[in-house]
Amino acid sequence: LHRLELLTAEEAAQVQAASPLPEQVRAVVDVLAGKGSHASQSLQSFIKTSNSQLYLHITVHEPMVQKHLESLQSSCGNGLETGALQRLTNLLLVEGLTDIQQKEHDILQVETTKGLPNVSKSIPLEKLFLPLSKVSIPPRISVTIGVAGIGKSTLVKLFVCSWAKGELNRDIMFVLPLTFRELNTYEKLSAERLICSAFPHIPEPGCIAAGAARTLLILDGLDEFKTPLDFSNAAVCTDPKKEIHVDNLITNIIRGNLLQEASVWVTSRPAAARQIPSGLVDRMTEIRGFGAAEMKDFLDQVFLDNRDLSSQVLQHIKANRSLHVLCTIPGICWISGSSIAYFLKHSSDQSQEAAVVPRTLSEIYSYYFKMTLSGDWLEQPRETLMTEQAVNTSKKLVGSLGRLAFYGLLRKKHVFYEQDMKAYGIDPSLLHSSLSTRLLLKEDMQASTAYYFSHLTIQEFLAALYYYMAAKRAIFDLFTESGVSWPKLGFLTHFRSAVQRALRAEDRQLDVFVRFLSGLLSPRVNRLLCGWLLVQDEHSGFRSQAIGVLQGCLNTEHAISSRAVNAMRCLHEIQHTDTAKAVEEAMRSGSLAGMLTPTNCSALAYLLQVSDVCLEETNLSNCLTYNVCESLLSQLLFCRNLRLDNNQFKDDVMELLGSVLSVKDCQIQRLR
């Protein structure tokens, strides 16, 4: 019975006579049958509270339903471009989080796995909340994961808009989308007030059909929630009217102590999703990145009026394997595409030395920031470019935004509110259109206004810019915001401190920040940003010493970890590629044997991810010893086609390889 309120009184009486009936269905049918000839009119809602638990068994006022549908369509329909959404109509069906998803930064996850999912099962969006088989039941708790910028919020908008139009899941009576950005503005809430405050057009929480008909509560963006969820110590609450801390409210809803009749859908970045115990999750799905055709369609959409430019941009992205992998993320594809297009637009104006296609992440983001500060976007004519005064104002704002970005990054904070802006001396009214649409986005909510960076990597680049500029004059540890610490003098001291912090961080959330910080020391980035955000040639005084600090990270462990690989990526950003080039050349010529020192092993692990030599097959024949193989194990996981023949292995190595093949993250398809 999907829509009980459509029953006539006579039909309701027939259903009433049937036995047995679920308690919730009988409650609704009793009301319907009692209405007599007026049963076709809108039915008043009611709440049944039993054993201090909230049951929402109601049908609803038809005008109020209509108002709810219109409200959802207006709020979720904006900005949905149907051409780019096909990818989101099929989700990957996954069995929990992999080790790499729980421990690594989003960008490193994509780089390590080369943007390729390790699962073959998928589920269409319209079946996301349906049973997988005739003998199973619909999931109560569903979690959808995806790295930053992959399209989680867009997926939610797409689902809600499609549902409101009646295109899918008609068995769901009510869809209630909430974001953790909104929930951050409350200290305490009850289950009833949660619904009422988010949907003021619904007069009472009893107007939610979550018993006789299904209700779906959507909680979007767990990674943006200000308080970690603590399922071990959260106090149990079964009273829907009782106000409790918002994090406790969420844990009680997920556990089923509150709104237990409703289905719940949580979206999150992978690392944050591990807060929810796997035993409570009935279904986990993952959003996949772009395939080759989808990337082309996306860039065609970005450069709608210039298909030639779109083709050139795609060609440059494909020529850089590392960048091509990252561009499977729509957010990074947009930033990279815009930057390369900006470069191509101005390449005729540059010297031969400067006219080199941006190849590192730092170069891509430097072009992006230069373009943002000048307001020189492709769609704007030259005469509308910003005045010098406006550019100077933007530079000052970037300094303040950088401080906000850096200390936000340290606190794992990615959403900011008016009090945060005030604390960091940022006047939102000064954020002109270019800055507010390309760097810091704004979202007006009922209770307040939220600000967030257009992508996680934008926050990380701004944070690195702030740290770079502050480190030249700081006398205390910049990681201590209060400024109370042992004195630390000199840029190199602060650079070493940042690298050590990143190495020690268990959640790896400073890895890309350190990569950008290293990139700001590269000669090419200095040329790009000098006169804008950097001083010409100032990097030359400490670049070689910074390279020494990074090289010191390569010999510290027997096993080659992702930390060593990230240090190699930092060296690539700083434009020190000698070690990687030497190892790559040895791979091409088959002369790796005897040269795999710990440093060269780190370079090899890095090349396994980025080199074209390893694109079709990773050939490590006749060059590995047992110890080298053991040190590289965690990196060999992600080689799809691995060749290890003619190595003088002993039987023990088979046990090692067996342990690798049984790991959840393992992507090896063919092993010789």
Automatic annotation (TrEMBL):
One MF annotation (Gene Ontology) recorded for this entry: ATP binding
Pfam family, one: WHD_NOD2
Organism lineage string: Eukaryota, Metazoa, Chordata, Craniata, Vertebrata
Keyword Ligase: no
Positions of the NACHT domain: 140-272
GO cellular component terms, semicolon-separated: cytoplasm; plasma membrane
Source species of the chain: Cinclus mexicanus (American dipper)
Keywords: ATP-binding, Cell membrane, Cytoplasm, Immunity, Innate immunity, Leucine-rich repeat, Lipoprotein, Membrane, Nucleotide-binding, Palmitate, Repeat
Organism domain of life: Eukaryota
Domain CARD: 1-62
Subcellular locations according to the entry: Cell membrane; Cytoplasm
A biological process from GO: regulation of apoptotic process
Protein name per Swiss-Prot or TrEMBL: NLRC3 protein
Keyword Nucleotide-binding tagged: yes
